[in-house]
Amino acid sequence: MSATDEGVFRRAMGADFDRLHPQLQRRFGVGVGAGYGCIGRGVMSEVRRGPWWTLPFLMLGAARNIMFPERGRDIPFIIDNHPYVDSLGRETVTFVRTMTIRPGRRRRFDATMIYSEARGRIVDYLGTHQHLAVDLALSVTDDGGLRLTSGEQRFYEGPVAFRFPMLLSGTAHLTERFDDDKQCFVIDLEVRNRLFGLLFGYRGEFVCEFPALADAPAATKPYREEPRE
């Protein structure tokens, strides 16, 4: 089995991947070699944010589809996971979450993930222009769910490259599991700053379809691709 056949999550998790719930293995097994993608549709029971003084930070992120300032309940959403090979020859998986905040207002949370051989982990490029590269730590919960924790963050723009100070950013804690009784996926995300507390978060439920592989829709791909990891 080649590295591409394994997919980015199996490569990052190794034997732990087989400890995931079978439905989680199917969902995170998306890849070019697997021959399929994943489209989830559901409802966020809650989208939340921090106090009023987090608004400038969230509004800045909204300009590049990295978090947003709105909050609400029972918000319909779609998550698009499409595997493809980018222009740099890297297997990439899109993680594009589109939320219908209210009629006439949609917000997106864009990410593209690769497996970095050099770092031995998944690197998550956030936003429309892959300006922010984030290391991800993955683990398996007792009930076969996937726990994701963000780590070091690096900012790239033209000749500019620096490690983004965590004091000005947040750490994401995401858990995704499969509910056998409801036959759906359950997701819970919090982004917290170590000094200021909650910045952004959501929780919800969704079901998935697994379409045969086609090239990722252009609307789910970043506007630029960052070669630096």
Quick synopsis:
By secondary structure, the chain is mostly beta strands.
Labels describing this entry:
about 230 residues
Question: What would you note in describing this structure?
Answer:
- By secondary structure, the protein is mainly β.
- Helix content is 11%, strand content 48%.
- The protein is built from 4 helices and 14 strands.
- Strands 1, 2, 3, 4, 5, 6, 7, 8, 9, 10, 11, 12, 13 and 14 form a 14-stranded antiparallel beta sheet that branches.
- A hairpin with a 3-residue loop joins strand 13 and strand 14 (197-209).
- 38% of the residues are buried.
- The mean pLDDT is 92.
SSE blueprint and pairings:
Layout: H1 3-6, H2 8-13, H3 22-28, E1 38-49, H4 55-62, E2 72-81, E3 83-85, E4 91-94, E5 96-102, E6 105-109, E7 111-116, E8 121-126, E9 132-140, E10 146-157, E11 160-163, E12 171-179, E13 184-193, E14 197-209
Antiparallel strand pairs: 1-2, 1-14, 2-5, 3-4, 4-7, 5-6, 7-8, 8-9, 9-10, 10-11, 10-12, 12-13, 13-14
Helical segment count: 4
* H/E topology pattern: HHHEHEEEEEEEEEEEEE
- What is the β-strand count? 14
Radius of gyration: 17 Å
Helix content: 10-25%
**Gap from first CA to last CA:** 25 Å
Strand content: over 45%
Question: Major β-sheet, in short?
Answer: 14 strands, antiparallel
* SS content category: mainly beta
Nearest-integer average pLDDT = 92
The dominant shape is globular
**Unreliable segments (pLDDT under 50, ≥5 consecutive)?**
none
